[in-house]
Amino acid sequence: MQRLDRYSLPEAFSLGRSRWQLMVWFCCGSPVLAARWLPGSGWRCWLLRLFGARIGEGCRIKPGLRVKYPWRLFVGAHCWLGEAVWIDNIAPVRLGRRVCLSQGVYLCTGNHNYRSPGFELQARPISVAPEAWVAAHAVLAPGCRIGRGAVVALAAVVRGAVAPGLIVSGNPALPVGRRQQCAANWAQSSSSHHINACFDE
Predict the structure, then answer these.
(1) Is residue 131 within 8 Å of residue 138, measured between CB atoms?
(2) What is the CATH number of the domain that holds 94?
(3) For the whole model, what pTM was predicted?
(4) Does residue 16 sit within a domain?
């Protein structure tokens, strides 16, 4: 059984910023970013950049967005981040160009080793390749890799990788179809092409 009274963070784990920078973000930056009563997208992009996020041009950010550590967030150009999206990025989260995260999406980069009494923290990055859509209230587990043009349907729960152009649904998420144009484009691409490369296109 887990012994939370003996829990400690792994020695190799770093928050990535000093204590005072963390305090400024959690006390000032994060609450303002998440404020549902404050309209506007451009200033939210500016605020995230101020705290170290890499945000591409033309991004639209809705009220209610929550980001754990902005310095571990990479967002390509012309992405949409919907209301109440929760990017829990103790490990890096990378979104390619023209990615859409709809309302209430949860990106979870941290887990615990529930087979160990130490309940050790396990952090793994998440990547979403260009032109993918993660629909409302979907959940991406630590280490997820969503391929180019893929669709994660309403309230789906994804673990592992989703192939480019694939449509997945349910919990656990299973294939239910393909986006035809994405599938055709992928078939014409090089066999050496992979998800991470898509972010540079």
Answers:
(1) no
(2) 2.160.10.10
(3) 0.88
(4) no
